[in-house]
Amino acid sequence: MFKNICVAAGLTLLPAMVWANKPEFAKYTRDINDSIPAELFYSNFDKNLDSLMQIWYVQESIGSDTLISEMAEDELSFVPEFHDSVYIQRLRKIPSIVNLTYNNIVRNYIHVYTIRKRDKLEVMLGLRDYYFPMFEEVLDLYGLPLELEYLAVIESALNPRAVSRVGATGMWQFMLGTGKMYKLQVNSFIDERRDPLAATYAAAKFLKDLYNIYNDWVLVIAAYNCGPGNVNKAIRRSGGKTSYWDIYPYLPRETRGYVPAYIGATYAMNYYREHNLTPRYIDVPPVSDTVMVNKNVNLAQISEVLDIPLQLLRDFNPQYRREILPGNTAPCALRLPASYATRYIDLEDSICSYKANVYLSNSFRTIEPAGRVGGSTANTAGKDRIVHTIRSGETLGLIATKYGVSTSNLRDWNDLSGTKIIAGKKLIVYTKKSTKEQSSKTGNDESSSSTVVASANGSFTYYTVKSGDTVWGISRLYQGVSDSDILKWNDLSRNSKIKPGMKLKIMQ
Description:
Elements lengths: L1 H7 L7 H5 L18 H14 L3 H7 L21 H10 L10 H13 L1 H24 L9 H6 L19 H6 L14 H19 L2 H10 L1 H10 L6 H4 L5 H4 L1 H13 L17 E6 L2 E3 H8 L3 H7 L7 E3 L5 E6 H16 L2 H4 L24 E6 L6 H8 L3 H7 L12 E6 L3 H5 L12 E3 L5 E5 L6 H5 L7 H7 L13 E5 L1
Antiparallel strand pairs: 1-4, 2-3, 5-6, 7-8, 8-9
Helix pairs in contact: 6-7, 6-15, 7-10, 10-11, 11-12, 16-18
């Protein structure tokens, strides 16, 4: 296939480094032969992509489209692949102050995005229109190259909740110490490393400081990954050389794949059309507004009073670790779809007092040691302990909704640092009613969004939609039921929106 594509494109099949030795391409290529396994990159990238797929507005937009991780053999025939000379020419045409060198390692990372992870790259392409204008505004404010926005792609897959294996957090992957150094607030309630805007400002300041040290953008990118200390050691070990590719063998193993991954991402985000990639439309509310909150309030209170999906509020405000805005301590920024901002201001007192004894209980402040399970900070006294076996397709948010608990409690109870879960594993859940009690509940209790009522002919049961539900998420609650089935049974289209209180027919 590769030969056929090259012939069709009118390209001569020459070894990669023959092209590299041609004078017109010499400045764009380096002959680097390194057998670094791409798995160092894949592990974090896959984890970030998995949790990206759990974000509410991503799930709402793509439904249960069959996002795949690997291309099947017969599907590979439809995926374009090009000769090295084509990649070199395309990289040269990208308007970039950062030197986009090409070699076999860069080619491998181009293939990560355009072949191995092409379906999920399409989701990131859909999110690009939402996040990149914000990145560009901040980068321009600090006089930085706008193409540094592609760092967020390789750092977090544009996922504000990304957490690395070493604890780097957020879209720009700040470690705790570095985040605090750049004035990001991190405490028991707030983690501004997860706030896309605040973290982008911090990243811009960090990048500007690194450039003042190295005066070389490729070294800046390397230092952003492993720290200036490791780059300085590599420079010393190389005998004082200051080119990234000269110090390459002396850098930490993971950083050796970082700059090639950046170049690969830059290429893929610019030339996705040539690889038959189409951005997935992600229905993020295009206009949002920020309200300053001066009282303690839980996102669940806002969700229930204003009738906004709770998961949307969580994803709009990922910096609030326990879903509580501690406004009594200091003013907190609450981001809302623009149409709800005025309503919040008008109803703020009602919102903050709504079920305050439940959502603003002091139990999260004073916890008996006996109530801690696996490092839990959630009070478990007087609650039933349930062991939930994770099913394929379930997310942490879906399981939390099922049992009426928060995702932060689930993470605490099970010592989870992020939201990634694996089918077949078990989760500990503490709830007021056991699974048996919940499943035996019948009747017409309208206050319960999961009440199931038999229809007259007995062929259907009914599910009452609650805030934050999606058709895909509801389908995962019923064995053998797909979201397509639910749409068909209820005369809904893919573009139909479900609202709290709606009853959906589910065939038994």
